[in-house]
Design brief:
Oligomer: single chain
Mean pLDDT: 94
Number of strands: 2
Order of helices and strands: HHHHHHHHHHHEEHH
Structural class: mainly alpha
Distance between the termini: 15 Å
Strand content: under 5%
Low-confidence stretches: none
């Protein structure tokens, strides 16, 4: 890996690892919003699936409809983490872990790399005991990530722009970014990298790969899950200054 890229990635990872609490609160609030109204296992799973599917900028509604029809008509396949993965993969002997959940979702109509990775990450968060939830949907869902399984970062335009800022000579996409990170970081580390979206989102302005990297308080306010008191905003703004310095070309 290029020394300059390696240095910036290591600085980014250190920053994300040091500041996990900020996005953790945002994600916990988000999970509460779409889980709180529901009590049953099925309804909670449906809510997560609908929420993630609709994070797409242009969800393919007609195609997704066939997926949801299949899920809603097979309730007996939803009662455990293992049976749900078997249902997704059509393989009763599939290892019930987060990697197989990702690939199982990827096989479904209307689901792509980003949404499959985002759903997998969300299910992990709802069961690892660190976000205020205990066995939120399934009792048999793993609470830790096996070091031998691959975990995928839900790469979207925000994260692609971050990597373009680090190295504009590469045409970054979901596969290239994940390949680079998986090669240099552990499966547990990959979950830390998920916080990159939050810091990237609130520190970008404009669109496309050449968007401006700057504290964008309007985006912070646009997220319903963020704390809106002045003290909290000032703390996030101060940490954002550190985040943005990583991309300062003078530091290259």
């Amino acid at each position: 890996m290029n020394t300059s890229i390696n240095s910036k990635l290591n600085s980014l990872f250190h920053f994300l690892n040091e500041n996990r609490g900020y996005n953790k609160k945002v994600q916990s609030n988000s999970y509460n919003l779409f889980l709180a109204p529901f009590d049953s296992l099925e309804d909670r799973l449906y809510s997560v699936l609908h929420h993630i599917a609709n994070t797409q900028s242009q969800p393919k509604i007609d195609i997704l409809a066939s997926f949801f029809q299949k899920v809603y008509s097979n309730k007996s396949q939803l009662h455990s983490f293992k049976t749900f993965i078997n249902f997704l993969t059509d393989n009763d002997s599939c290892v019930p872990n987060y990697e197989s959940l990702y690939y199982g979702m990827l096989r479904q109509a209307g689901w792509g790399n980003k949404t499959s990775a985002l759903f997998t990450k969300t299910i992990y968060h709802l069961h690892n005991g660190k976000y205020g939830f205990q066995n939120s949907i399934w009792e048999d869902a793993p609470k830790v990530i096996n070091q031998k399984e691959k975990i995928f970062l839900p790469v979207d335009a925000v994260i692609e722009a971050v990597f373009h800022r680090i190295d504009s000579s590469t045409k970054w996409n979901f596969h290239k970014i994940n390949k680079l990170l998986q090669k240099n970081y552990t499966s547990e580390d990959m979950e830390v990298w998920d916080d990159l979206w939050f810091w990237g989102f609130i520190n970008q302005r404009g669109s496309g790969l050449t968007r401006e990297f700057i504290w964008n308080e309007a985006k912070y306010w646009a997220l319903i899950e963020t704390a809106k008191d002045k003290k909290s905003i000032d703390r996030v703004k101060n940490e954002s200054t550190r985040f943005l310095k990583i991309f300062d070309k003078k530091q290259s």
